[in-house]
Amino acid sequence: MTPLFTISLLLLATTAAATTAASRLCSNITIPVQISSRQGLFKKFPILSNFETQAFSQDFTRRAHNLTQELLEDYRTLEGDFNISARYCRPEVAASSTIQLLTHGIGFDKTYWDLSYNNWNYSYVEVATENGYSTLAIDRLGIGNSSHGDPLNTIQAQAEVEALNEVTTKLRNGQVPGIDRIFNRVIHVGHSFGSIQSYWLSALYPNNTDGLVLTGFSPRGSFLATTVAAWNLHNAFLNQPFRFGFQASLPYRLSLNEENNPLRPPPPSLSYQLGLIEKALKRDGYSFTSEQLWELVASTEIGNIVTGFNDTKAPLKYPPGYLTTSDLTASQYVFLNPGFYDLGLAVLSEQTKQPVTTGELLTLGGFPSFSSFAGPVFVFDGDRDQPFCGGDCYAPTGTSSENIAAESKSLFPAQGVFGAYLQPNTGHGINFHYNATAGYHVIQRWLVEHGLRP
Ligand SMILES: *[C@@H]1O[C@H](CO)[C@@H](O)[C@H](O)[C@H]1NC(C)=O
Ligand SMILES: *[C@@H]1O[C@H](CO)[C@@H](O)[C@H](O)[C@H]1NC(C)=O
Ligand SMILES: *[C@@H]1O[C@H](CO)[C@@H](O)[C@H](O)[C@H]1NC(C)=O
Ligand SMILES: *[C@@H]1O[C@H](CO)[C@@H](O)[C@H](O)[C@H]1NC(C)=O
Ligand SMILES: *[C@@H]1O[C@H](CO)[C@@H](O)[C@H](O)[C@H]1NC(C)=O
Ligand SMILES: *[C@@H]1O[C@H](CO)[C@@H](O)[C@H](O)[C@H]1NC(C)=O
Ligand SMILES: *[C@@H]1O[C@H](CO)[C@@H](O)[C@H](O)[C@H]1NC(C)=O
Ligand SMILES: *[C@@H]1O[C@H](CO)[C@@H](O)[C@H](O)[C@H]1NC(C)=O
């Protein structure tokens, strides 16, 4: 046997032994951060009803307009204390001094990286820890179990980048409560908006990152209008009232009240409507098959409205201005490649989705035009990515780059090590496609081969 062959066999044996889910230790932690963020002060606009959220989308996507510019009244420095909720995992045996800091994209939270579904078959964290890395997956500022805030003028991209930078510094200094060690190297791994923020951090604080893995990313903003239109954004508290907190709406008054809209049809009595549904379901000779009922619930907003009631859990309470995709079909357009994703997982992700704020939408395009970071950068996209590739990353780019993901190289003029990879048959929501973890192994291998071993 040649030595090389022996080594490959050994490597294979290690990988095979490490595939059980039990080989890592995880804990949930809360990280206090103090941030100072120079950001926009936007003029308020009505955003209470779903008619108004759609008007916002119309204004946002209007051709040859820049809503960010139109609403911008001033800049100000936001200063404040916030909590970042995170889940820390480390390999049970190895004590790695390199950590991957995972930042999720719009529509998700920290659980994007570590789903227990199908025996951890869709878990980035599982793959990274198997390969010897520690991970910290955060809920971005404003989202999930991290501090929430005013969706227009507090929860903006820049504030989230500052929070991410604070978390990074605390990891390096051993100041994260619940993690009793320091990390010499922090690799920033993002998905989508989380990749934009990881890139943004590298531009503002090039010293504070040792490597970037940008999944679901490219420098192109030109598909954003299609994305926002396809989402069919609704207020989170109206879309999933039980989970996102109908209470959040009580202090507000929907603008479509009778006073403002005398011609509005009278409000439906909920018990009358429910009674009609019950009658229809019971009517002789008339019934849905369970498949039809499943389709009716899972593929329409009915599924959202009924999801999430749990009398042991407090709703998340997102105020108006926290928006979300209307239903799973809207999410499919942006995130999923039909035929190649796990439908059960997609339904679960719709039930556990997270919102986007108006402030995030108005500021996510404000990232610096280049980063002086000179370390390793790996861009990893689904080849059918919609929001960053327009549905086909291989389509002619009109540039010298071989595909749209590879165009990201132009953001890093310092010309460090750069790689781009397109995961086959995969949409923007990489994690929900059958073959996701095979792609995650590609990422770990790339890191090891480019100076970022655990
Ligand atoms: C920790 O957070 C995960 C979500 O990231 C959740 O599923 C789990 O229940 C939490 N565990 C505890 C003990 O709070
Ligand atoms: C829109 O306006 C904002 C604020 O002035 C600016 O930062 C941004 O670059 C503009 N976007 C485009 C695409 O011109
Ligand atoms: C952060 O969470 C802790 C509880 O873990 C709480 O006491 C504190 O007030 C929170 N801080 C902020 C700024 O919300
Ligand atoms: C992961 O999914 C694949 C394909 O669906 C399946 O063959 C495999 O058994 C699954 N693995 C685990 C650990 O469930
Ligand atoms: C959410 O945060 C609170 C404190 O801010 C903490 O007590 C709780 O464990 C966290 N839950 C999860 C799931 O992270
Ligand atoms: C951070 O980077 C700057 C250049 O951008 C350099 O001058 C400085 O010495 C670096 N600081 C540390 C602590 O590495
Ligand atoms: C409600 O949440 C708890 C955890 O907080 C969970 O154990 C339980 O399964 C949930 N119930 C439903 C109906 O989802
Ligand atoms: C699964 O992903 C791996 C890594 O990108 C790739 O080599 C393989 O061809 C993919 N398999 C399929 C069936 O797409």
Automatic annotation (TrEMBL):
This is AB hydrolase-1 domain-containing protein. The keyword Chaperone does not apply. InterPro entries: AB_hydrolase_1 (IPR000073), AB_hydrolase_fold (IPR029058). Residues 1-17 form the signal peptide. Transmembrane segments: none annotated. SUPFAM superfamilies: alpha/beta-Hydrolases. Keywords: Signal. It holds the Pfam family Abhydrolase_6. Residues 101-255 form the AB hydrolase-1 domain.
